Amino acid sequence: MTERNENELNDKTKLTNAEEENELELNETEGVDSEIGAQDLADEELEATSAETAAAIAAPVVPVASAAPTASTKNPAAVAVPWIIAVIAIAAFLFVLLKNPSDDLNKTVAKMDGISVKNSDVLNAISKQMGEDQFSSYVDRTAEQILVDSQLDKAGIKVKDEDIQKAIDSIKLSNNIASDEDLTAALQQSGMTLEGFKEQLKPEVELKLLFDNQNKASEDDLKAYFEKYKDSKFATTPKEIKASHILLQTKEEAEAVLAELKAGKDFATLAKEKSQDTGSKDNGGDLGFFGKGVMNSGFETAAFALAKGEMSGVVEAESGFHIIKVTDVKEAVIPAYDDVKEKVKDAYYQEKYSTDGQAWLEKLKKDNNYKNLLVKAAEPAASASQEASPSASPAAK
């Protein structure tokens, strides 16, 4: 979990004007059509954005031992927020309409010269803009939320303010947003308040709470999780090693140097003479202390497998062929399980939700006989006998 910046957003997405997204344009033959500026999302973009939102909520809080994310030179909130708003806002709109259709579909939302614009008009316009497949995806999300709400009611579970704030904190952390103030500023540019954003995050938070409730971990599960990740996730101070290396460009060169080392040649001397790493060769190949997540994976795996004073064989990595020697070790400082039990529980559920959440939701829908009526049934495949052309009868002799 030391590479939290792997989810850093790219800047291809720009802030869009909220008024453009919600502008209604009269059409003489159709009534009212809805224009959502710059938000004609393809189905795959919808799915990716929804996944990003859920992943941000489910992302584990970085433990003290983890390296801090690299600071971004651009405003990541300006990149992330409009995408999250676009997906959640439309889903929330559909949720309200489809949950209470008799009350809300006929609600008038705008008037002009004797013409009334109802929620049903907006819903119809959105479906036309999206296309059937994408609109069907939003119907799935809406139905899922209605199902989740009913399950939460049965279990007596209510979303608390701290649950919403935890989701906000996870989104800020995963997108390098420093504070609530930075998030608020980005939201304001998109025409939304922080409180409004929290309200629209509520369905995702409810989904996670229901998952946690229906997938409870035993004490043995939590202890096993702690043992597995105590070094990488829960150490108050991570393990570090001090290592030196000699870098060569070919395996033959590296094997020749390794033979000299095994024959008793001094490691630092050979590093100065033959290493092709200009940054460390003058120091005898010394790289100083480093933890996991700093070096490339091949080098790191080999280096951390060595004890103090041990030397590797020839290690192939991205930059070439290495011979590594560990000269010192600072062991990780691991807290007692009872001292970090709540952190272990949070991390366990967050990881399980990330890996198993979608399959669990699909099973929940299946168990409740869910069917999206917008999805057309697949045409039955033609049988082999139907597809095969009739064989010619043998000629009579």
How is the secondary structure organized here?
Blueprint: H1 18-22, E1 24-27, E2 31-34, H2 43-58, H3 76-99, H4 101-104, E3 108-112, E4 115-118, H5 119-130, H6 132-155, H7 161-174, H8 180-189, H9 194-214, H10 219-229, E5 240-248, H11 251-262, H12 267-274, E6 286-290, H13 297-304, E7 315-317, E8 320-330, H14 341-367, H15 384-387
Antiparallel strand pairs: 1-2, 3-4, 5-6, 5-8, 7-8
Biased composition (Basic and acidic residues): 1-14
Protein name: PpiC domain-containing protein
Domain PpiC: 238-328
Question: How would you describe this protein?
Answer:
The protein has 397 residues and is α+β, with helices and mostly antiparallel strands. The chain folds into two domains: 4-228, no CATH class; 240-330, Chitinase A, domain 3, CATH 3.10.50. It has helices at residues 18-22, 43-58, 76-99, 101-104, 119-130, 132-155, 161-174, 180-189, 194-214, 219-229, 251-262, 267-274, 297-304, 341-367, 384-387, and strands spanning 24-27, 31-34, 108-112, 115-118, 240-248, 286-290, 315-317, 320-330. Strand 7 (315-317) and strand 8 form a beta hairpin. Helix 2 (43-58) packs across helix 3. The radius of gyration is 29 Å and the shape is elongated.
